[in-house]
Amino acid sequence: MGREIEKTEFSEADFQQFRQNLRKETKLLMDWFTSSGFETEGVLCGLEVEAWLIDEAFAPVPKNEEFLQRVNNPLVVAELSKYNFEINVAPHPLNRNLASFLCQQLRTLWDTCSTHARDMGCQTLMTGILPTLQDRMLTLENISQLQRFHALNREILKSRSRHPLKIHIEGANDKLDVLHHDVMAEAATTSLQIHFQVPLSKAAAFYNVAHVLSAPMAALTANSPFLFGKELWHETRIPLFEQAVNTPSFVDREGRPVSRVTFGHDYVRNSLLEVFLENLDGYPALLPVNFDADPQMLEHLRLHNGTIWRWNRPLIGFGPDGKPHLRIEHRVPPAGPSIPDMVANILFFYGSMLNLQPEVPQAAISFEQARANFYAAARFGLDAEITWTNGKRLPVRDVLLQHLIPGAVLSLAAMGLDSSELRHYLIDILAKRVASGRNGAAWQKAFIANYGPDFRAMTQVCLENQSQNIPVHQWKL
Question: Which GO terms describe its molecular function (predicted)?
Answer without folding.
Answer: glutamate-cysteine ligase activity
